[in-house]
Amino acid sequence: MNVGVLGGGQLGRMLALAGVPLGLRFRFLEPQQPSPVDGVGEVVRAEYDDVEAVRRFAKGLDVVTYEFENVPDSTARLLEELLRVHPSAAALRTAQDRLAEKQTFQSLGIPTPTFHPVDSRDGLMEAIGSVGLPAVLKTRRFGYDGKGQAVIDGPNAVEGAWKALGGTPLLLERFVPFSRELSILGARGRDGAIVFYPLVENEHRNGILHRTHAPAPLVSRALQDRAEGYLRSLMEKMNYVGVLALELFQHGDELLANEMAPRVHNSGHWTQDGALTSQFENHLRAVCGFALGACEPRGYAGMLNLVGRVPPAERVLAIPGARLHLYGKEARAGRKLGHVNAVGADPSSVRATLDRVEALLQP
Ligand code: AMP
Q: Which domains, and CATH codes, for the chain?
């Protein structure tokens, strides 16, 4: 089968690395050169809105999927006229807009932080009246890794936040003093079958995922069931096919939905080494119409992101149990360059392995 992927970043690379053993061939649409998918498939080097290139990209493919969600809606719709696209352009559209996303959560009874759309300076004051402070002002589109956000912790911070973000459609959300950040990933097949990975706990640094602990500690069956119920209702409502990630804040006994990602997700990278079937393989199984694979963890797992710097590979590989995944990207501050997974019989041994890798990053 020939699989087309919109985007050629590390997620595309890891999809290909999981799909080649299944007999799949890959073609990417990616504007940048060099890119992490160089060498793992064919690359059509063009902008996402280049209609002629999109048609060339689509020729001979059996299915198209995404590794990047900020693809223009017009491109996703054009592709849908030509061939099978999973997840659908409609699901992509919902996930691209924080307001549409939060309204979808709300319509399904999935709790979220209190929110209010903001389209003007006066609108911001009205939103603050409705949501209260502290709050987080976010761009509705194109935000990632904490970019396009400003915390308004009191009345004095309003002007600065507006100066930083005003002029594009925004959303104001109540700031949630959460106890921890969790995420759940699942896959839904073309036949409607659904599988779920266990809830994982995510630690962030400077707005970027730093470590994932899988499964998340202290998760009751009831909490896992609740998260699965939320994800299931989203996947069923959107008639979703592929892997869907849902980011959650745990606040007391509550689980509040922050955002969803209509693709494989950084908090699922541990599954490459720590689950019976990786998120990458399950995404491909779903979009290609194959049976989904089991999601059970192989003991405990953890993932450490390598952001901005990569330790020498030979030093990582000398640490027993450290599984290195590099993306072939040039080092730049704040850039995700790779990650290390660790798997063990208990959470403390996993942590110890990742601590040893992290120590290599200290100057
Ligand atoms: P996002 O881009 O929406 O995933 O936000 C990036 C990070 O900002 C999250 O992982 C949280 O750590 C933090 N954050 C976002 N929204 C809120 C909120 N409403 N309350 C508290 N922290 C938030």
A: 2-85 (3.40.50.20), 114-174 (3.30.1490.20), 180-359 (3.30.470.20)
